[in-house]
């Protein structure tokens, strides 16, 4: 009888455990608010595999919910059950959307639990090979001589290339005609063929084309030169005369607001270990991305950083007069 009583007590204690005590017990969905095959999708899939290893080999499924500059996928994640089985991997547009769109179906600083930053991806200023300039000094002279006639490609409103283009125009004080595409691939195709003049896009999109000599590269947007072999010779915009210019496209991990702390703590621990996974590290280095290794891998510091990004990009977007009705 005593043995049966002890078993019963153990069973009762197990039944009384909160639902997240054994988390995770089933596949996790990682919402990516951009199309499959793009740079954020590539980061997400590599990160999902690294995260899987730290969560007991639980499958992490990537759900591409693209559209409206990333706001559709972000809204989907914000509305998901806060049980830890739906997460969001988003980039800088989570911080720019409040300024870009007059209405949003979520609140960036209120509707998510912040789990930590993942990486930062530098940008490169590139042009069609038909452009006569061969370095950034020559490019600036060409821009000054072609005011009102310059086409600047981007992968759509809210995309990394759109945001970098706004910042570049503001720094150069040269207005360019934005040409928006439905993704990076068609934008790059037209740049290569000479249908458009310039683009400022992530190294994850541009490195292969630069290596192949299909486009001209003029500078990187970070304040230090990059170590990636194909990009190491490129000067920074800061050293090229645009003092203080520093733009990277960061990626971070988020969960719906109200996800239990026990789960967010578990995910944060898994994130920190995933960022040290050798396979993930190698894949990011190959893309020219920099894995975050500072305090922003913690939720509170990540949120402070995003809040500062909202303020920074808000000023740029307001100055450019670009706001869209959602």
UniProtKB/TrEMBL annotation:
<dbReference type="InterPro" id="IPR005064">
    <property type="entry name" value="BUG"/>
</dbReference>
<keyword id="KW-0675">Receptor</keyword>
<comment type="similarity">
    <text>Belongs to the UPF0065 (bug) family.</text>
</comment>
<protein>
    <submittedName>
        <fullName>Tripartite-type tricarboxylate transporter receptor subunit TctC</fullName>
    </submittedName>
</protein>
<feature type="signal peptide">
    <location>
        <begin position="1"/>
        <end position="21"/>
    </location>
</feature>
<dbReference type="InterPro" id="IPR042100">
    <property type="entry name" value="Bug_dom1"/>
</dbReference>
<keyword id="KW-0732">Signal</keyword>
<dbReference type="Pfam" id="PF03401">
    <property type="entry name" value="TctC"/>
</dbReference>
